[in-house]
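hi! just following up on the protien thing from before. the input was this:
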Amino acid sequence: MIRSLRGSAGVWTALCLVALIPVSALGDSGTAVAKADGQADSAGLNDKINQLESLLKAQQDKIGALQNQVDSLEAESTDATRVAEVRKVVQELMADSGFRESLYPDVQQVGYDKGFYIKSSDETFLLKIGGYMHIRYTGQNRQTDNRRLQGRQKQDDINGFEIEDLFLIFTGHIHDPKLTYNITVYGDTDNQHDWRTYYAYVNYALMPEVQFLAGLVKVPFGRQELVSKSALQFVDRSMANEFFNLDRTIGAAVHGTLAKKLSYVVAVANGVANPNDSPSLDQLDTNFAYATRLVANILGGPINGESDLAYSKDPQLEVGFSFGYNDDNGDRNPGAWYSIPDRIRSGRGIGGNAVADLTGTDYFQFGTDAAFRYRGFSATAEYWLRTIDGNSEFSAWELQTGRSDASHQQGGYLQAGYFVIPKKLEMAARLGGVWDNNGDNCWEYAFGVNYFPWSSWNAVVQADFTRMSEAPSSSSAANWSQNDEVNMVRIQLQVKF
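and the predicted 3d structure came back as:
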């Protein structure tokens, strides 16, 4: 049994060894096959990985190229934005006169600011040049209403164009901004067709409350007369203003503004309406003319011009008072703007208005006025009272009127306007006249329209219609003659720089 077991054991052992041999052999062979298969799979995988890496790299290259394009476009957009921003800053800086001057501190500065200007770098001297022109059409039907004026029952009508006004204006300061000047020359297109001095004066502002002025200026009397012709609501001033204004003269004045609310002017002059008087030509008497004007600013800022082109957001109201006096003992005064409403004894028969030399008379004038502006609406009113008293029985006044007592004349006007299109299109109306004229009253009715293409006075087209009954005086500027019944249409273009 033991021998058998041993034999069996040996056989079992032998069988195990035999069995192990092929297993081992098979194991080594399987490993080799597996290795071969694995190497083949690894090679294929590597190829795929390489392909994927190639594709990935190509995609990354494309993405990089696209990113570069995006970055380039963004850079261009950013540069354009930055360029626009820098350009805007440069334009704002160059619009600042102080900055421009800082670039060239030793060079005189030139430019435009409501007129062309030249000034020194230290602002010691300034010259500003401006001006304006009126090109006007007038169509007029006129005839004499007063048939007592012999030979003047009817006059020819008017239909034509003219250059009514031509002004060149030189302003600035000398040595000190407080010392200013104004030299205005006027192209006379109605008479001699030459250039004349219209204004010539200097002004020193000791302070806003006290300023000194001397030269050729308008007598400080009335409101409308002191408004520039480039800022009138109608083509020209009212008939009553032409009758009562004291025109231009040579003299001196003290003026200023107190507490920013009360403006005053006190003036002394050679006479009134005597811009050419000269002592060297024996054209003056020994008496000065005197005038004063006060303006109270009740609401808002100071009122400039007649139309509310600025479309005032807050109400503006001013009230003014004027006074003028002259004792005339021989001033060179043609008297063309005074009317003699009483009996005319020389040359033309009886009745009507005429003019007279005022030598040998005392005359006083009083005036009051008011102006209101608010949101495109404007209203202006003036009233005048004149007293003429002959102090010599041989004066032209007394010889022509036959009166030695005082003669009174009153007049005024009321006008209003409104911008139906803000800062563009304005409608206006005016009623005025001269009365207390020894029973001979004269009236004016006017309607007008103004168009502002650029919402400024630099360019304006104006048109008006005026009806006037027996004009008390002549006006070459406004195109009517004394004693005429007038129906008139005027269209005017204003160009200003």
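Residues 115 and 440 are 46 Å apart (CA to CA).
The chain has a mean pLDDT of 82.
cheers
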